[in-house]
Amino acid sequence: MQIIWRDSSDPGVYEEARVGRVFNHRRPQRFPLAVVKATSEKDIVDAVKLAAQKNCRVAVRSGGHSWAAWSVRDESILIDLGNYKHLDVDAEHQVARASPSMTGKEINGVLIPQYGLMFPGGHCPDVGLGGFLLQGGMGWNCRNWGWACERVQAVDVVTAAGKLLHCNATQNRELYWAARGSGPGFPGVVTQYHLELIPYPKQGFRSSGYIYPIRLYREAFNWILSITPGFDEDTEIAAISCYPEGGDELCFFVLFVTMKSSPEEAEKALLPAKQSRPDGAIHEWFCQEDSLDNQYVNQGKANPENHRYCAENAYIRNDADVPTVLEEAFIKLPSKKSYTLWYAMYPCSRRKLPDMALSMQSDHYLALYTVWEEERDDIRCQSWVTNVMKRIQPHTVGSYLGDADFQVRKTRYWKNTNARRLMDIRRKWDPQGRFCGYLDKGDQSGTKGLENAFEFKL
């Protein structure tokens, strides 16, 4: 077990261990007591026991993609899982066991070519399974296939007492329930996910895209809202405000990605959008051959490394005038690398979810991904996000944990009953607050957990 201590290690080595794997280059000024680079379950168990001996908290890093860098906490022992990677596949039963630091791209890079299977992990190629699944997992085609955490059959967990437990629907059910939607407040360290896989639709993986000038924002948005209910069940739908690569004109980009068993089925699925689209597109394509690999490339370009980020999100009320509520978020971005996303969640948003912590959703998911390069732009870009969200929040029902920063804004992340149950489970399994939990303002949440309530500041 490699341990990099803050007070005795080379400062450069410590700094690299502290934030070298943090994706967001707006790095936090928080300093762990030590960083443990785990390579096995035993290392994780030993690290939790070491924290108990030192009477300090434990933080965990899987992929390092948290926008708010939840893993970097003062006076904690940070367990970095970046060197702890494994994947075992049972192709016959379409299940896999994977460590939390494995990314969706890494897993599918094995599953697709070797087994013809896939797991609907994160859209961004470098998102680790750990944080993604703990937050619920808004993965590929979530609007129809459901949340990625619904395909978690079991988790192996190291508890605050340093015990390794297997948790599923019949064993240690409380931890299994919490592992699907608790986010960073999970009272343990997941060492392994047991995942249900699905066939990869290689022959029918196709996409259509329609790029409109931003002046046609309302017409294009009303169109996409009108066709989403009842649209094909294997097609995900997104609308993005962005500057196309190399372009100077802000555009409204509507993307359909369908995953069918044949090209003919894909064309049939995508045809209603083509037939109903409004005129005026700057560029468009229909039922173009695509792949998960290609989508990862596009997502990587949209979320470049070595940049500064500020992200926020909201579930918009089903009965809201969505184009009006979101207009400010879409028609003016603070930088050319920023983008605003609307993601269709219907019909998943209308069905009863399994019994799990995840419980907040609506038909309309909004996310602001503000991207810039220079520290001098921090205040301007962060202020834009804050001001936009202040005006949108009265029209929301809550937010998704994955794109949130609890230090900045209070809102709801679960149904109230689920929130109360989750905080009770946290206190039961971690009564001393060994695990850092939710990073609220001042990192004060402790065993109390996160308040599940709106705070309007208009």
TrEMBL record:
GO terms for molecular function: FAD binding; oxidoreductase activity. InterPro entries: BBE, FAD-bd_PCMH, FAD-bd_PCMH-like_sf, FAD-bd_PCMH_sub2, FAD-linked_Oxidoreductase, Oxid_FAD_bind_N, Oxy_OxRdtase_FAD_BS. Residues 28-200 form the FAD-binding PCMH-type domain. Keywords: FAD, Flavoprotein, Oxidoreductase. Its cofactor is FAD. Coiled coil: none annotated. Pfam families: BBE, FAD_binding_4. Belongs to the oxygen-dependent FAD-linked oxidoreductase family. This is FAD-binding domain-containing protein.
